[in-house]
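WARN retry 2 of 3 for item q-0093 after timeout on previous attempt; input resubmitted unchanged.
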Amino acid sequence: MSLHDKLNQSMSDRNVGDYLDLLHDDFVVTFHKSGDTFSKTEWASMVTGMMGNEKFIQESSRCIYENDTVLVRHAFMSYPDDSREAVMMVAMLRDGKIISMETGATALN
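OK item q-0093 returned
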């Protein structure tokens, strides 16, 4: 199963453990809009809250490109405040896991 498919499955199942298993120990996420960065531990706390909220929904996702070093995906997301975004994610991979990830989002409402 591709990393993209594993990521989709963990989000669909709302399985935080499976999601976090896809992240390298040295993982860092960067939010494009703010430039804020978060470690795996910090991101784990955020992801736990997101996946625990039924109004946080990945409506759809598609893989733009994936190989052993990079994953590019696009998704439509709905949030607890009833907003929606189109989200582009670029992830660098190491040892079969996501080592760094940057997201960019466009509001749809």
